[in-house]
## 1
Amino acid sequence: MIALSVDVLEKTFAGAIRWLLRGRRGASITRGEVLRQLYQIGNRSLLFVCVTLGFLGMVLVFQTCLQVNRITGDLSQVGAEFIKILVHEFGPSLTAMMLATRVGAGIAAEIGSMVVTEQIDALRMNGVDPVDYLIVPRFLASLVMTGALTTIGVGAAILMGALTAYYSFHLNPVVFLDPSHVRLGDLATGVMKCAAYGAAVPIVAGICGLAARGGSEGVGTATTRAVISASFVVILLDFFLSGFALFTFQRGGL
Amino acid sequence: MISFRGLKKSFAGKEVLRGVDLEVKRGEVLFIIGTSGVGKSVTIKHLVGLMRPDGGELWLDGARVDTLDERALYDVRKKCAMVFQHATLFDSMTLLENVALPLRKHRKLSERAAETEAMRYLEMVHMQSFAHSYPAELGDGTRKRAAIARALTVGPEYVLFDEPTTGLDPVSARRIDKLIRELADEQKMTSIVVSHDLTSIFSVADRVALLYRGVVHAVGTPAEIRASQDPVVQQFIHGRSDGPMETPGF
């Protein structure tokens, strides 16, 4: 498993760089395949991410306003702090958790099925590297779409949060929609997390899929393992990247 | 020439191959037979690096292949093609695109040139009229023939067939048998066929090797195998349920 993980990591990054530098000539993957994966990972996750982050935005704002109302009664800073925490923490992490379940499971099931039906062996016999052909397009698409989905998801959460604050606590949306607390460091942290999660989810899911053994039971096990592992890796990355951001951006005054 | 020397392989502590010794001569059709789970497919997969042995050596035309890395194995796979048990055509591609894939990857042909060449191979297996169909639209026998065409595109000297007639109706199975025989007679291609289809074995094989308890238990021409007095051989070729043969899982 360790050897497989190292091999997949190395080939994925090398394949992605080769494709980005040389386009179609440099790798086994076609532009069409990357576009197909952009659609699969991005468009088909859009509703799921928007609904989840929208509801979470409603719940978070409602609970925060409720508590703040009991203590100080001043809700003017709730929106500004909510937007700040969404940008550097909740937006990227919750979107990645959603993608770990929807996209991670899909990748592991698809590749796992190909392993148990010998299609991966057939690819190798035809001179095609399975990592280059199957994981690199998903990796490139996930990198782009995690950022895009996070941006849209954060928008949905802010909108639903503003509506909740207005209808439940009569907080003026102009006061709520205050981005002044968001610093450059928050934006940099959010972008860094999106890139890390976008890279991690397809790689982890791909490794689990390639490690599938046996028949349909093996595919099921690989899919479960992919969801758990990808979610765990997102949480671990969140911990380390938040720590990194704390010691670099915030100490540097960003 | 292909040479398996003391090939060993275990899965989760269970010894499947315990020292397979077998030589395959150029131009012959060798059938590896044996009960399900005895390690027939495992044996041939080692030859093209789809599995790594725990012990023993594999030689192909005087060169050792079991120690090669994945990149070096690409050359072995050009020389030694494989037709899998389930055809393994890619569902998202038409038959023509499936057959053209190794031409683009192994022989580095352009997309257009690969498809022109692929059509020639489809004609060879009488499949040209299905070129633009998707695998899901076709029957098992048709898919198997397309898989054979795909395997032939790299111009192999050796072809490994993993249970080519399993799951096919008798007519399709005999067509596949005929194709394997034609490849040997007309194109001088060496074939190793994993099978337990007795009709195929006795109508196509030049030699037969019976795998039993992880080793080659008996090897010889179909006539020699038929005439063998060995009780294990007799039980297998007559398909008797009673006898000395142990079947994994029973």
## 2
Amino acid sequence: MKQMIEDIEVRAREELFININPIQAAGRLTPEAMKAIIAYGDGYSTCDWCKKPFRLDKIRRPPINEFHLELAKFVGMDQARVFPGARRGFQAVVSSLVEKGDSVIVSSLAHYTEFLAVEDAGGIVKEIPLNKENVITEENTAQKIEKVKRETGKLPKLIMMDHFDYMLGNEHNINGIAKVAKYYDIPFLANCAYSMGVMPINGREMGADFLVGSGHKSFASPAPSGILATTAEWADKVFRTTQMVGDVTGRKFGIKEVEMMGCTLMGANLIAMMASFPRVRERVKHWDDEVKKSNYFIDEFLKIEGNKVLSEMPRKHTLTKVDTTGSFDKIARTHKRRGFFFSDELKKRRIVGEFQGATRQWKLNTYGLTWDQVKYLAQTLHDIAKKYGINVA
Amino acid sequence: MTEKAVEETFVALFALTDLRQIFRDAKPTYQFNSEQKKQIREIIEKLRKSLNVIEKELIK
């Protein structure tokens, strides 16, 4: 592939290969988002028509204000803001609610940025253990709350729970956990980084006080981009405006929201997110078909002798952790390219995105592939297995 | 130099972006179905028109 400019190569892997990378699948741009980047790539491109009160979410041309209102409705909450990634959404909530020494409950499969958000605020992470099926239950959540209360004398300040986790793509009982949070009167944040934008989400029905989504993971948007939505009850706290006054100049910037650091996701990233929104709204209605494709692939994958699936079954998501220790890893042990033989074979057949060199446990994501592409992917794995003498049922 | 040439530059870029999407949908075998073939023809036609305008406005 040609160099785009000097030593930066053109990235054409989405045009040339089936990409099964676990975190890239649902962040692939729509053509509308690609066009938005062409037209809005310049730095402060969203600021052409920024008028009083001079805040990103108030801009009406392009219709950024309307997008924020629609976004909140789309996820069943009262207010929404865009952020440079889900992580900044966690940070905004934690920073607003948590003080030094406070406990925050998270999943044992929580994303590392949840840890960082808590650490940044001086809080302490307390993890809920998984059950035998690698799922967080309401029972385990309640037990953890009681344990924290016993040990610290205080209730946790916040519960952050992944709807679908990034490690296994397992679904956690978000509604049940929200009820537990409500029972203890602890604010509840649902991390929907792997669900908002690919499946229907309704924060109110979930019982969440805060919803966080990821643009670049699940909203067909460039990185970094993310969403934080909340209820009217919490909006004033998390989206509070600055009260600061300069002691020399007397300057104040009243409309600017502290946790947003003023305007958040400016320029091409926001416009691309907006450009993808109509398709995102439509595609969530077809989540069932994505799950069908995921299960079709996994059924075919399991026909290869020695293959295992580490995620819950049947699959409820398109992100899956698999184990090929009993199949492809056996070949890798004696192959001169070791685990890279598998990557080589995939790439020859125009498939990329697996963890290069890994032949034991690895993750893949089938989201957005057509049925033809999913069938091609399954057939390719069968072909590689047969080539190396591994039985395929 | 006219506004028309600038406009057609974007039309052409957007048409190529639509072509990019067709590559994404048809990879890795690129067995285009009849609908995709129709779209490709329309894209090429659109590109030709845009390039003609650009050429006329800027060079001729």
## 3
Amino acid sequence: MRRFAALIEQLDTTNKTNQKVAALANYFKEAPEEDALWAVALLSHRRPSRPITTALMRQWAAEVAQLPEWLFEESYHIVGDLAETIALLVQQDVVGSPPSLSQCIEEIIALKPQKEEEKKAYILNRWQSLDNFERFVFNKILTGGFRIGVSQKLMTRALSKAVDVDENILAHRLMGQWSPATTTFEELILDPKPEDQISQPYPFFLAYVLEDGFQEKEAVLDWHIEHKWDGMRAQLIVREGKLFLWSRGEELITDKFPELDCLAEILPNGSVVDGELLPYKDNIIGDFNALQKRMGRKTVSSKLQKDIPIVIMLYDLLEWEEKDVRILPLAKRQELLTALYKKTKGEGVPLLLSEVLHFSSWKEVAKERDRAQQMRSEGLMLKHKDSPYAVGRKKGTWWKWKSDPKTIDAVLTYAMRGHGRRTNLYTDYTFALWQGEELVTFAKAYSGLTDAEIKQVDQFVKKNTTYRFGPVRQVKPELVFEIAFEGIAASSRHKSGVAVRFPRILRWRHDKKIADANRLEDLKQLLP
Amino acid sequence: MPLLEFTAKGIYCKQADVYLDPWRGVDKAIISHGHSDHARWGSKHYITHEVNVPIIQHRLGRVSVTGKKYGETFHHNGVQFSFHPAGHVPGSAQIRVEYKGEVWVFTGDYKTQIDGISAPFEPVRCHTFITECTFGLPVFQWDEPKIIHDSINQWWAKNHAEKTSSLLMGYSLGKIQRLLKHLDPSIGKIYTHGATEHMTQVLRQFIYFPETELITRDTTKKEVEGNLVLAPPAVLGSAWVKKLGRLSTGYASGWMAFRGARRRRAVDRAFVLSDHADWQGLLSAIKATGCENVITTHGYTDLFAQYLREQGWNARTEKTQYEAETPETAAAE
């Protein structure tokens, strides 16, 4: 624990990638293997399931600190991070010594089935055996969300340095669902056995947002162009007669889509495809909300399967005849994928092939992009015909050229303090549109302003608060912002009657008064 | 009629017709300490602790200032005033005001830790205690200063061994001198930025400090290498810093207790060292005064006053124009 906390503290104190990698690599080399494995797990967002609710943690912390609950809550709002608030409030003389990281996590795992008073005794005891920063890290492990400015890629790079295994191979080995409770550093990282890996997905290859001036530099014929389908990216694996479906967040979602089970027999063994899960009924692509509805359900009823049937729209082929073919040029992989698709095509087979579009000029491509909404896509994907299927986000060969977002001018009505780096600044905003004489909330947005603008808005919020409830401040309606969003759908769960996707601040409209902001009707006109 | 009122110009004693730390120009201003939000420009005459006389003249130019010693009483229209150590920065004082047996104390800024350069805080018994509460939240609990000073010297020594210079930043008045006082000159040489050097020179007539050398145009990277540089936080990111060569940066402030503030500041090392009282410090100071009434002026005023009310004090908040530092303004001195 001490070593791990020191690592996190070190990572916190530098913005330089090289120093972060060096600190991580050093840790992986020096820490006992079982600790290093847990560190890899935590830094790739695999944590033990939460043994206690945060409500209990808050209550106990207030008790130890001998504070009224309201003051604990206010402190939390100001600090902006629960793990840190508790660490700061329960400062006491350290008694006993900290366990190792793996020991500590084993204790946390063992805690889950215990009675509340046993849990409490354990937690209070641990708080006391740790110093300030260790206690913060301990609380972070308990409450989850280990976000500390280290991407999985960075962690993988450091691990690659420490164990001298190629970064891409490591990225592959670290994919999917594994837990240090059931594997070892040796088995997972150093020397995995092939038979343990039949469900193992490949790292997804991700595209960058298209850069300005791209079209001037590139010949349209070098590029494979298709629609960017608006569903859920997924990887489908058929090995040894079994089927596995992985989401981009590396979750195994096979159970959520039983209509795809038939593919275990339709696709040959040793096939891995990359594609998009889409609602598809009567030869029409459904909208994203329908898919979300399915993802939200614990069990998938046959009615739901019938109402919202799912297909997988094929993009790419990663493994063919039990061989990793990611290194082949895209054109070659596409040839194999098309052949596979044609062979398996048939009534009721839940497969579609993402059509490769042919254009002779970028102007034509732009025209096709304008048809995105009509096609029910988010825009276009541009992939270089020679590109291999790489790991993670790499600039240069895969680009996304999304449709322009829709925009609307809205009034800032509420603000909330941010978290993490933005603690103490009002950075989370709620926006409203006019309905008659009333401002109706329609979206929240967190990003899009520069640091300087955030400071200005923060000052405005602090000076123009009309009402406070907990961390939220109601502010005088005065500032107008242009809000961009990707999609829009009717929603009975929102007061405005509309749900927008990916709302974000495009710019601060200093030139507009609140009377110039849009009306809710204007937004509703954009409904498809 | 209350002995002290909060007016548009500052904290006012009507009976004596004087202001305490006024934020607008007045005829007579009694000043708690030399920081710019308490000793403001524009008044005709200032009365303050004697150490503050050269500080105020350094900051405000040739203004009329009278210096007093701690405990020395002086009168205006039957009201008795005296200064008592506040422990905040050198010269800082609580202002005690007494009239017909009623005693009010205005703290200015204070801390209960002993910093080695300021006269230590002395509780003064009173009926009404007007207190700052910059860090009036229970999450603020300072470590022993010695622990912090030791870690600063260790950081410097490590940098020195790696031929890296150490840039240590903090407020020019108070914090920098406190840091300087506890640096270990056997590790290397101590350089200063102009703003910090001038204030330190002003204070050298009262306090002994290790030697410092001002960084000038002629100072070379080679000379600075491995040594320590004291500077205000505003230098971060400036051309001045680039001249210093390979650096490790350190920042000393109470706000560094917050991880978010540490990461935002993006310094290599954050040292949690404050010249304000922490939560326990504030509470113990209030208890020691034996007061019934508490008025909170700047910081987490509402929360702190609410907590005090629950503990049985008659506590309220008054608006002032003392800048309650925040993690954002902490660096913008």
## 4
Amino acid sequence: MDCRAALRSIEAKADGLLPREEAAELAGHLAGCLACSAEDAALSATGPVLRALTGIRAMEKAPALDAMWTRVRAGIEESRETRRRSSWIARWAWIPAAVALAVAALLFYPSTTDRSPFHPSSFDVAVEDVESDVATVALVDKGEDLPRVIWIIEDA
Amino acid sequence: MHSAASRYIRPDPPGRPGGPAYCFLLLLLLLAAGPSEAADTVTVDVGAVYASNEGTSIDPTLGTIRGKLQSMFNYTSYRMLDRKRRSLSVGETGEFELPGQRTMRATLLPAQGDKVRLSIRISDGPRNLLTTTLGLRRGGMVLVGGPSHKAGVLILLISAE
């Protein structure tokens, strides 16, 4: 293994991608090459240093990140509450609409028609006069419980 | 970052929670302000019933008058063809179209107390079938029958409220 191949293997080793058979070959090269051995040592130390540095930066920024997350969470809650409120309005908005329809039906339904059943309270009727030009008219009275009938017998 | 996030998650301003209630109250007011009948008017209600021996059906809209029709006449079927109402004041005449090109004109005459006086004229084209003057109580009813219609006769249920 020459130094160029050894450097590629050192980088692969630092990334954890070096195959086992090449690791043995690299170890053999490092044992006899001071320059590559120094490079290997430097790269091997870089990972822990970066991890430590990231940890330190994260600790420094933790309060600011916490504060931002608190704002985000509050915003989400507020948004949910608004959605809940608007869905409540949507759920009950049909009631005024239904009442409006009912009122419109009552106001604009032709008042000259009526489908409610007949429930007369009295059959006490006085027939003051009766006449017809083309028919014979009979007055039928079958008792107080029954309505008086004016019967028209059309002449043939 | 802060302002951008805030802009993104800021909810729309909430609607006025009392909106539907205001609409409901407005509609109730409209309903309360609807047309109401004055005490000096009478509503004349005319139902045109087709009585025949075709079938045995009795129209449920005849209400309590069904049994009385059955006990007074020998027809097997009573069907409500039309029903009309007119609110009349004294001196006013209302016209009711009847089945078979017939018409009925009712004029409200002066009366006292809960009495109602009606002048009724039923015509078949130019022919005067009936002219009568009736005195009845509010809520009372009188029947006028006999004009032929199809295979049976017409019976008019005339009531005043």
